[in-house]
Amino acid sequence: MCPNETHPPTSAGALDGAAPLPLVQGPPAPLQRFADIIATLRGPQGCPWDIKQTHASLRPYLLEESYELVDAIESGKDEAIAEELGDVLLQVVLHAQIAHDRGAFDLAHVIELVSDKMVRRHPHVFAGETAEDAEAVLKAWKELKRAEGRGLLEGVPRSAPAVQRAQQIASRAGSVGFDWPSANEVIAKIKEETAEVEEAMASGSKDAMEDELGDLMFAVVNLGRKLGLDAEAALRRTNAKFERRFGGVLAKLADRGLLPEQSDLAEMDALWEEVKREERGLR
Fold first, then answer.
1. In which domain, by residue range, is 87 found?
2. Residue 141 and residue 58 share a domain
3. 121-150 burial string, b = 16+ CB within 10 Å, else e?
4. Same domain for 249 and 136
5. 90 CB-side CA count, 13 A
6. Are 59 and 95 in contact (CB under 8 A)?
7. Residues 219 and 112 in one domain
8. Three-class SS of residue 177?
9. Does the residue 58 lie in any domain?
10. Do 97 and 42 meet the contact criterion of CB atoms below 8 Å apart?
11. pLDDT tens digits along 85-123
12. DSSP string of 117-172?
């Protein structure tokens, strides 16, 4: 729960009554030192690779580093999280330096923008308003975004993973009442969409199959949402489970001196069930 008694930021940037993060301790400040390093790498005597980078060329690295951070978070290892946060920070600072080099903006402007946004969107902390719980904070956050002129579905990245984006846009539509009443209605919709996939399969049209498969997947994502689950996390969990179990199948085939190509579905399916029993501590 957020406190109701609050104070606005001081002119120096710190918050009254709040201890500053150890970000700016010691000469030079760690963030400034890092920004200077990136500026040097982009400078005339810097690194040829860094010098030639653009916002567009760095896009795959930003995505890759973000996914690696998610993996680190899921591992629960603090040192791994710290390292991957650093790699994501590298992308932020490098993008800011590229923008600075072309006269657009710099890292200070990026930090000012996000600082102003966080203060503006937390009036229950910085402006004396109240918020009783996390749900109230989320509702107020959405209202503030609309007041800033952003549409209901604006801000959901089109480049986000499709499952994640489906959950976000469905959640936003649901917030204004365009939603199934309960998970049971979603299950009925899944059955309906499954039947339509079968009809598309019978037609032989790849375009129709893709269209209906997308509808089915969208309905499944919404089932997770109605159950209070993160569909992206659920699918990542299943991917990891499949990799682990299929790896076990391959290991058991290797113990028999076999490659997968030398086996068949019946044998691999039996080994799959064996791996599942072993995972559950059964024999």
1. 22-147
2. yes
3. bbebbbeeeebeeeeebeebebeebeeeee
4. no
5. 19
6. no
7. no
8. coil
9. yes
10. yes
11. 999 999 999 999 999 999 999 999 999 999 998 888 888
12. HHHHT-HHHHSS----SHHHHHHHHHHHHHHTT--TTTTS-TTS-HHHHHHHHHHH
The CATH code of the domain that includes 142 is 1.10.287.1080
Q: Residues 43, 64: one domain?
A: yes
Contacts of 212 (CB under 8 A, 6+ apart): 193, 196, 197, 199, 200
Q: Are residues 35 and 135 in the same domain?
A: yes
**Polymer length in residues for the chain:** 283
Report pLDDT for 225.
Answer: 95
What is the structure's pLDDT at 49?
A: 96
Please list the ranges in the chain whose pLDDT falls under 50.
Answer: 1-25
Find residue 39's DSSP bridge partners: none
Supply 90's token pair. Answer: 């590298």
Structure confidence at residue 145 (pLDDT) = 66
Helix-helix angle 206-226:183-203, to 10 degrees: 170
Q: What distance in Å separates the CA atoms of residue 218 and residue 199, rounded to the nearest whole number?
A: 18
Which residues are 9's β-sheet partners?
A: 15
Q: What is the pLDDT of residues 150-167, one digit of tens each?
A: 667 777 778 788 998 999
One domain for residues 142 and 26: yes
Domain total for the chain? Answer: 3
